[in-house]
Hints:
98% helix; 1 helix; mainly alpha
Amino acid sequence: MVKKNKQVELKLLFNYQLKERNQHLTLELKAYYRLRCQHKMEQDLLVLDWQATKSSRDLLTSQQAQEWRELKQQCTDKRADLLQQHSKEKALLDRRLDLTH
């Protein structure tokens, strides 16, 4: 009977320790999972920040390209206006010279 009681107690102790290890492993797994989820969220935020930065860069590039096109058009228009003005001035001078001769 003593031997039987000892085996039962050893079995109970083993079961208790097994239960304790399982609980500890469960807590570890929960902590690992929580940390993994936290890291995943942080990585996703970094990706979102990168996309926002890329989006901002794309927007800036687009705005700069638009400003460049507008400046180019303004320069082209100004050149055309100057050519027209110079043509008018030349025509007026030609007429005046023709009248004087």
